[in-house]
Structures are given as C-alpha cells and as structure tokens.
Amino acid sequence: MNKLPFETIKKEILVRKEAETDLSKGKRPEDRSVEELIKYGVICVNKPAGPTSHQVSDYVKRIFGTKKAGHSGTLVV
Amino acid sequence: MPVALERATRIVQVLLKAGKEYVCLMHLHGDFKEEEVRKACKKLIGKIKQIPPVKSAVKRIEREREIYYLEVLEINGRDILFRVGCEAGTYIRKLCEQIGKELNSRAHMLQLIRTKAGPFNHKEMYSLQDIKDAYEFWKEGDEELIRKIVKPIEFGVQHLSKVYVFDSAVDKLCHGADLYAGGISKIERGIKKGDFTAVMTLKSELIFVGESMMGSEEMLKAEKGTAVRTNKVFMERGIY
User: Would you place residue B5 in the very low, low, confident or very high pLDDT band (cuts 50, 70, 90)?
Assistant: First the structure.
C-alpha cells in the first residue's frame, strides 16, 4: 500500500545512558484520566460540509467546555 | 480534520510540516492513451522542482519537493483521479500542471481532498454528533467512547523522530530551555541535523518539539552542546 516515509521507517533506539523514571511524577499517555486526555488531546473530526473549519473547531471547543482549540487545514482530514 | 484541545493546540503547527496525502481530480487539455497518462504520472514520483504560485505566502523561487507515491485511480476521458503522497509544501495545483507538461500539453486541477496529514488519516474520523455523544456518555460514567475519540497529544507526533530525556532535565525543558546532550537517555536512530524532533520523557510523554542540532550518532557521543533547539513546548511546568 501507499505509505508516507514515517509509516515505513522501523524505529530503532540507541541508548546513551539507561535511567529509571520516577513513577510519582508525570504519567504514561495510556494512564491518563479522561480530563487529562482532554487537556492534552487531539481529535480527528469528520468536517461537515457547510460550516468553516474554524466554526467546527469552535463547536468542538464548546462540547468540551475548553478554552482553546485549534484546527489544522481546511480540507478533508 | 484534526482538532487539538487546550495544551495540545499548537500541535497543528507541527502538522503543517508533516507529509500529506491527497486525492486529486485533474483535467487534461487533450486526449491521451491510458498508458501515456500513467507513464507521465509515474515520471513525477521522486524529487521534483516547483515554483510557488503567484498567489502564495512564500518567496517565489524554485524549490524541491518529494513525491513519495502517485497512483492513478480512475481515468474518465480527460478527467484523471489520482492519489498522491508528498512532502509538506508540495503544490498539487502545480503538480497537475507538471503532469500536463510531461504530456506536452496542459492540465489543471478540478478538485482536491486531503486524506492524510502526518499521522492523521481519513479512516478514523468522528462526526460532531459522535463527539457530543462521547462527552455525554462520559458525564454519565461511561468512558469507553471518549477514550477512543480523544487521542493523547503523543499521537500527533508519531511521524517525528524522538529523543528521550532524564527526569532531571524535564522541568528545565518545560520552562523553554534547549535540550543539551547531557540530558539525553535514549535516541531514535536516523535523526539528521535540522530534523524536526519530538523530545519525550522516559514515560513517553511529549515535552517539546524542536529542531535537532545534531544527528543521532552525535547525540549518542556528545558530552555537551545543544542537541535539540526548543520550538514549541507542550508539557506544563512543575510536573517533574
């Protein structure tokens, strides 16, 4: 199938110096609460025909009651 | 269309620099055999040169962009439907003109939709109604749908190379400091100087996105010096 370069690259990790991480600080993305997910979240919206991208992202903002929301691009994705 | 919330808002600027995929409808100004059209399209795969259009925000000098793939989906007389994967900043309207030129003729773009922007693709999208429902379900105690719809910000940097830093370096980076080589624990292979790079904690949380000042190998060996220059900070201060 057709793939963009990053979709085909195998990621290999080079270790400069191994280290532990303090589990009392921060959180793995999969361990976040829904509130935390929303605070650092992205959504892929199926933009309806009619309203502008700005209006759609504004609507999403209102659903979540967040202060900020930004959109990328005016086309389909 | 990716919509980013709150602290993630600036991620949309990172996506501007990500590879894109489009489906484009092009109209040829002449009649050509199917093989001729396919051959002309194939010729544009790889590095191509483009001059930005008259109406554009950037300086009009010739620039190079890469076409990763270009697949003809349908041919209907003079109308050609194709799918193209390309580097950020490729002008598809120009690409159509270039295909026309390849046929010793002309061509123009009729319609364009974007089907990928970096890690975002058209396959997993939600309607505004889905999003509203997910929010209401969550308020009633069911998290399943909202967890599926709202992706962590890290989803949006899948296309970038990554550098992982020690806990002790994290808060300085949240305050806007550049990343020094000494703060690095792990590096993904293949980073080149000048690449847009995501700087992560050892728990795989995104701290900031910036421009690498060293390649992977150099980061591995260097004791000092700036490894990644900060550009957009996402993580809040005071977490680490």
Answer: confident
Please check whether residues B28 and B11 belong to one and the same domain. no
Mean of all residue pLDDT scores within chain B: 94
- Collect all residues with Cβ–Cβ distance below 8 Å to B120 and sequence separation of at least 6: A44, A77, B2, B15, B156
Count of the separate structural domains present in chain B: 3
Domain boundary among B102, B137, B158: B158
B112 → closest Cβ in A2, A11, A75: A75
Q: Give me the amino acid identity at B134.
A: A
Distance CA B145, CA B212 (A): 37
Which ipTM did the prediction report? 0.86
Structural domain of B5: 1-17+123-158
Tell me the pLDDT tens digit for each residue of B25-41: 999 999 999 999 999 99
Q: Is A6 in the B-facing interface, judged by CB distances under 8 Å?
A: yes
The reply to whether B102 and B25 lie within a common domain is yes
